[in-house]
Amino acid sequence: MAGSQGIGNATAADAARAAFAPMSARRLLALGGIGLILAGMLVGDIFAVFVLHQNAAKVGENLAAAAHAAMAGDVNAVSASFQSVGTFLENRGTKVDTHVHMIAFGYLALMLAILQPWVALRESTRKKVAWIFLIGAWLLPVGVFLIHYVGLAYSPVAAIGWASIFADFGGALVIVATLACLLGIARHFRQSLRPPLEDVLLKDRSVAGRILLAGGLSLILLGFLHGAYYAGVDLYRHEGMDYSLLSQMTITAAAQNAAALDTALAGYGQLGGEKAVNIAAHAHAIEFGLLAMLLAFFQPYVSLGDPWKRNWAWVLLLGSLGLPVFVLLELKLGLLAGGIADVGGLLVIIALLAMWIGIVRYTGEIDASLPPARGEKR
User: Fold this and answer.
1) 81-92, pLDDT tens digit by residue?
2) Which domains does the chain have, with CATH numbers?
3) What is the reported pTM?
């Protein structure tokens, strides 16, 4: 009995020791996931600075041009203006989708990294699954990004272009890899005799980990509270204004009342801005909270001094709070708030990069503290 227990403990220690080896599935997913989030946030910051506001202005200009062309009865000008609106919206949409998918796949990679000890597959198989996941997770957003530029050129399909085909293939790879992990987890829990798992990530009680867990939970709570406030106070009012302003644009254009039409267009643009900043603040607070909580689990493998880990945790939380707060203030403070929000995003990127470097630097200090494997001497 004691012998079998010792063998079980040794097996668990062996598994724990191998779990974060330099090219293990868990380490690949952790580094790849943080890398995806970093890339997605960089895309988001660049988009916010160089594309977002300029694109919104172009959409507004073309929408106004279409309304005035309709008032003048110029069908061709209306069509051309709406085509331009569609082009700008596609450009914006592909950039937003690239940003969102990179970050979402990064979160999923971190979740799968945490769950690796429960994926009952051979390590070589898990590494292949991790590579398949990461290839797909990069292929999809890159393909989506290129949709606007590649279009249907040389496509074998009339409806979608090569960029869309590769993006869909990347999504299929992510689905296959995720299903493989889920099957491995199901296989683990179907095993009647399985050794107890000693997972360092889940046992960590470091200060940096607690800061990130508490801060992340607080950010998620703030995001939920803001969402509840917006839904209760502004959502239905905005929906009513949406319908009202669109009706005013139609009626004033038909009546050829240019002044009233311009007023309705300005109101519609203001309404769009209000909805956008509220949704963005709500979403970013929750997303950053989830990111902080996920990163809390990986603090044991961030090979930095404890003071530095605490500092980077606070930097990440500061940026995570600053970005949604100042996004919400953009309508009142204008570009100043937008600039501060971008700085908040930059702080998160810097803190993430520091943690990524710390994980790369990890060389096995925690693994060395585990019980020796069978036949191994201290």
Assistant:
1) 888 888 888 888
2) 7-199 (no CATH), 204-373 (1.20.120)
3) 0.84
